[in-house]
Queue: 4 jobs
Job 1
Amino acid sequence: MIDLGKKIRMERIMDRDAKRALIVPLDHGVTMGSIQGIEDIKRVIIDVSEGGATAVVMNKGMIAQGYRGYGRDIGLIMHLSASTILGPSSDDKVLIGSVEQAIRMGADAVAIHINVGADGEAEMLRDLGFVSEDCMDWRVPLFVMTYARGRKVKDPYDMDALRHAARLGAEFGADVVTTNYTGSAETFRELVKSVPVPVLVTGGQKRRSDLDTLKIIKECIEAGGAGAAIGRNIFQHENPYNMTRAICKIIFKGASVEDAARELKKKGDIKTK
């Protein structure tokens, strides 16, 4: 039986009835700098929380900047690993925080990023092992972002490589795994079947159209996925609130892509203090 402390925390970041989640990563400031859409973290959090997202992922230094003290609550996942695109190997992630620090910051869960196939894979796996042990001790949910990236990886979207990466996360004790889309509902279904914990599809780079994003999420849900972790395709959208609502309609209401897309045309401002 799942530990009560972890169960309570999981219900803050995943919908307790649907057992699904929409996570919005907002940790790009370390990797990519102050890119468009995250200049005002508090504004983004207002949009995505009121739009129905279940949690955000943030680096420790930005938690205070995003705290509101009003409006709809949203789960907080503190990111524990990082690299930059300016460094010699952006695929190699290092630890920048701890589970205990996340608890002190008020986080409901922690996230760690692993690139299977990267030069620094061994060090990342070692760090994941230590973080997983701390999560078990403190009853803190662990999100593992698993990707196939590095010199030995020919195709980062290869189903077998992604299935290996996702399974690795579960083997190390992840409560939720996030990974790239494999290209079809059929292949993503095979990936989900091979991983005994909830799997979320990631949004990746900004896509050409909103319909592309919504279609991928719909196919993920139909394949048995537990939701999505969407960053740039939400916070760089011209209306992050409406985009969040559209995605939530698919994840939590089972809406079609066409029905969800109608949310993008609605008008209305979010009232804030």
Job 2
Amino acid sequence: MRFITRPAAKRIAWLAAVLAVMLAACWWTMIHMPMKSFRGPLPELSPAQTDLRQELVRHVEKLGGEIGERNVLLPRQLAAAADYIEQTLSQAGHIVVRQSFSVAGEQCQNLEVEVPGRRAPEEIVVVGAHYDSVTGSPGADDNASGVAALLALARFPSLQQPLRTLRFVAFVNEEPPFFQTGQMGSLVYARQCRERGENVVAMLSLESLGYYSTRERSQKYPFPVGLFYPSRGDFIAFVGRTADAWLVRRCVRTFREQAAFPSEGGALPGALPGIGWSDHWAFWQAGYPAIMVTDTAPFRSPHYHGTEDTPDKLDYDRFARVVDGLGKVIEDLILR
């Protein structure tokens, strides 16, 4: 029988200690978030949240139901979605600016609303969501839900007198085949911001916000992330790269202070599957801090990118609670 020598045992113990320290450091810097996530029965919707719920239903049914699939291959539907977004924002009292560019012989538009800052107008907070859907899907959760949240938030009275400049932007061409290419609407927009020398201090990408499940093991993760997070898909997630950990933590803290709803946060390596899968990725490319707010889409919803991603699959009670809490998160970013 061979025995481990004392020097070898010391080396193994030293390596184990180093590994433990590294894991603890990774957990603290990437996964540990301020305060605790809400747990327990959800309170009844307030009257304001009930009204918000009805508004979200209306927007999702229009985009993900009546209009349905919308992308460059279906230019009429894509244009109808853009027109609806512009009309809704205009009715809320905003001036909408279209950023047009040509893709595959079709004119595509990003739609922007700006609320100038009163104290630091040169500091810009961008809240964005893509309004196209993937080929073959009506895209109710992905991403009519994100656009519905954008349209609702643009009407919040608390966001109309910011100290920093606030922009609401609806992006085109997030989905394949334009995803993470030069024709992705958010990348076109972010690059223009950089070319103009604009100081975008924070960007929030609203990506798939309406699907929730209280079933055990309804939530999936890329390995090994699932070791640290809940197995039930009943929470909203704030996701960013490690460089933007400060922004993830700030948003999570504010949400947990203000919203009675489960939330998780992660500042993880950008190369990990899912971490960069939305319009915040485009702002990383332009050198801006950006995170995604999401129900985690393919890691939770069985209808992701499918024909069954329809308005009836969303949980609008939970959705309304999330959007209400996001209003407080944005308020913190533009007023402090």
Job 3
Amino acid sequence: MAKITDQERNNYKDRVKHYELMAASLLKTEKALLAETMKETPEAVMHKLALVDEMLNLSSSYIAISGVSQAVFKIKNEEALNEARKSIYRAVIYLEEIVSNYIDAPFSEYEERLSAIASFDPNQRYGLIRKMGLAIDLLENAYGDNSKWKWTFVEIEGRYATTAKNIIDLRNIYTNMNFESPYYESTVYHLRLIKKLLAQSADRYREKYELSTGQTLDFKIGINFLIALRRLHIILSESEDAESVKKKMSIWTQKLDADVKKQEEAKKKAMAL
């Protein structure tokens, strides 16, 4: 690795100063907003929504710092990237606390949560979800291929997919999908994104199971994402798509059952030795 010159070091400091100041300011904002969320007021949940947005802004600042390091020194700033990852996690957690983290559940089980953010319209919800997705993509790209955090992103993306689904108002979905609705476009795109994310998360969890952990829990989570996707197709009266996902669920379940049986037989043989 080439020695870093004073000029490069000073160039780096000058270029990251803005992002460091922004990060410091956002951390103060987070602290202030957290204090507001602790108050039993109608506005508390909206302050938590603001927290989600600010944490995504914070992650962008840290990713930018690493980008400057890459440009000046030709190396990533791992510390900044780790802080960006933690910021995105906090954004996801804050959103889960608002809309729930249920991968597959009837809308009635979390509908009441959404009533607290009724003033946050479908356009704003879709905008926030897109922003979160962009932040995750930017971070994953910043880490690069073969990162030690590769499989961690399976969880992050899965939780993102879940919140993207749970924040949409399914009770008014057909009204918002009406051509004359001001929310038509965002609702259609939001639903399209949810379907993509649920299918992607299912595939990624199966990939994690087969290529990394070998833990049946990962495979089961993948199947849960398929169940959630099928439920959504049924709600939207997309019978062909629902049937297609059902077939995939059946194949995956058979595969899981066979794998579990093999593991149990292997344990019995090992114990007999």
Job 4
Amino acid sequence: MRPVTIVSLTEPGRALADRLRSLMPDAESLHRPQPFQDAIHRRFLAGRRLILLCAAGIAVRSLAPVLRDKYQDPAVLVLDEHGRFVVPILSGHEGGANEWARQVAEFLGAQAVITGAQRYTQPLLTAGVGCNRGCALESLLALLDQTLAGHGLQRGDLRALASIELKRDEPGLRQLAETLNLPIHFYPAVVLREYGDRLSRKSEIVFRETGCHGVAEAAALACAERLVDPDFRAELIIPKQKNADATLAVARIYGNRES
């Protein structure tokens, strides 16, 4: 995925840029770069995606000299300085700007203004699962069905399952994936550890046993983000649930399917 540059021109815009960097921590942030046009030209031509916190007219006039075509140009979003509207102005489909706009709008609580032909967008749900050694399929299914029913969901709403690499040889998890006809992904502890600050609760006991502070929630988040785009943040819609044998959590992220 192409790197991101956020450009702000006002003090409210700079505050908004700081908020956006919590969604995209690796993004470059420029405030009132001088000369403005040269700064964004260099980054645009280098293939960086742009978020411009300025008037759409400024963005259009500034980028016009360096536009090529929708297959080469990186995605560009324009936001008002207060973060109320998110407008993809370049590479909506091919460059992913439309979906990126939806992700940013969801994060900010803003309105995505999509003016091109639409693709069908839906939430993608992933379930992260942890379990004791030798956990039976029946126990996993009981926890899954109880959890989903309690939140108005069904098995068919899930797109994938995930767990920690340590459980790759666990028969119950393989059987669960086969029963649900879903892929199951396993992630090493070092990957799941990256999600420690986003867990509803960090467990030192789990850390001593596995090398990460929580399996179900971290696996659900990691899987959701890798289904769509690791640059975007998934959210936990069901925090860790458990029974005597297993734990389960559900994450959500938004993605496109062709209409």
